[in-house]
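R.M. (postdoc): so does anyone remember the format we settled on? I'll just put the structure tokens first.
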């Protein structure tokens, strides 16, 4: 899984094309892997997540990668138009109010900035019976399934305009553990192989959309 995750995150870094001196917000930073990869570009990184314990763990893991902040995606503790790029990586499928979260991301984005969102692609959300509340609960707390049209419409509702769409991470190659066996491949070769298999099979695992303010 770690090899697969690193490939996916590197696609985001390549897509961002961060420049030295730019300011990037990793909104929903999780373990801090993406913040660490982006820090290598020379950009200034702000890494945010909801749980203070999770933010503390990311800070401990990658102390020099970013400025860390525990904050709610619906009330980001940054001034408006203060960052050049925002990333929501595997975040919006967890949000009850997707448009509200995207509006906050758009608020802190500068007029010439860019937003990148990645989500599971056309996910079949499984429901499990919760032993605590005896209610059916979505697996992995994923509340939504997205394709290009659905996510593009939500971004537009939040005042954003999609500039690029791509899929990545072929499910068949994932099951065959190809990211692990080919972890020594250069990124361009993995991307080419992944793209060809996604075109042939239609089994992409993730969707990436880049957007700017409308």
């Amino acid at each position: 899984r770690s090899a697969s995750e690193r490939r996916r995150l590197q696609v985001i870094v390549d897509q961002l094309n961060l420049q030295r001196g730019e300011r990037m917000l990793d909104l929903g930073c999780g373990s801090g892997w993406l913040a660490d990869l982006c820090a290598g570009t020379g950009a200034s990184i702000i890494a945010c997540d909801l749980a203070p314990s999770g933010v503390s763990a990311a800070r401990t893991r990658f102390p020099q990668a970013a400025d860390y902040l525990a904050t709610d995606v619906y009330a980001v503790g940054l001034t408006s138009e203060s960052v050049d790029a925002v990333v929501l990586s595997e975040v919006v499928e967890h949000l009850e109010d997707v448009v509200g979260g995207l509006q906050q991301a758009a608020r802190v984005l500068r007029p010439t900035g860019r937003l990148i969102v990645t989500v599971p692609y056309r996910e079949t959300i499984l429901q499990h019976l919760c032993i605590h509340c005896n209610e059916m609960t979505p697996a992995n707390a994923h509340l939504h399934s997205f394709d290009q049209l659905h996510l593009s419409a939500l971004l537009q509702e939040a005042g954003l305009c999609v500039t690029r769409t791509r899929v990545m991470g072929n499910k068949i190659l994932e099951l065959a553990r190809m990211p692990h066996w080919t972890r020594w491949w250069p990124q361009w070769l993995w991307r080419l192989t992944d793209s060809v298999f996604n075109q042939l099979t239609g089994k992409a695992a993730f969707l990436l959309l880049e957007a700017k303010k409308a």
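R.M.: ...and that's the designed sequence above, right after the tokens. Also worth knowing: The chain has a mean pLDDT of 93. The chain has eight helices and nine strands.
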